[in-house]
């Protein structure tokens, strides 16, 4: 018969007859489980887990040196094309390439080889899109759909206002008394 008994920091297994008498399989010193041993087991488990994940997880394909090479070749550092989205559909996952990124990958990472291609099928070559600062992997972003420049905030036409009723142009915001007198003298 096996009897299991516990002390404050020990566990022992004894075998014997009905009274639990018999030989102990361990002496009292070998039955203690020190916190240092538990820490060593935890560290070893963590290291094995990290090593296992490193072997099993597929490495990401996004490489900063590819973006650096793109910026150097086309002088696009600081432009809207200076982003991982030039080749990827998302900056969160390096595995998802857009059509331009797929062509770049399939060309053995040779930008020059894919310049004449129209990776996104929008009717514009990759090089034309790069020169126009549009994404060569996004069919909805091309030189034709590129946002027109914002109109100037200054105008040369006089605004209508309360003075236009009597034939005087609006002076806008603040009124300079000298301007108003000059206009009235001219009338």
In terms of topology, how is this protein built?
Elements: E1 2-6, E2 11-15, H1 35-56, H2 64-74, H3 99-106, H4 111-114, H5 126-131, H6 177-186
Antiparallel strand pairs: 1-2
The sequence of SSEs as H and E is EEHHHHHH
Rg is 39 Å
- Binned strand content: 5-15%
- Catalogue the unreliable spans: 1-5, 8-13, 154-158
N-to-C CA distance: 123 Å
Strand order of the largest sheet: 1-2
Kindly state the number of beta strands. Answer: 2
Number of helices: 6
- Overall mean pLDDT stands at 74
Largest sheet: 2 strands, antiparallel
Can you walk through the features of this model?
The protein has 187 residues and is mostly helical. Among the domains are: 2-56, no CATH class; 64-131, no CATH class. Helix content is 33%, strand content 5%. The chain has helices at 35-56, 64-74, 99-106, 111-114, 126-131, 177-186, and strands spanning 2-6, 11-15. A two-stranded antiparallel ribbon has the order 1-2.
Question: What's this model, at a glance?
Answer:
By secondary structure, this protein is mostly helical.
Please name the defining characteristics of this protein:
mainly alpha, 187 residues, disordered N terminus, two-stranded antiparallel sheet, 2 strands
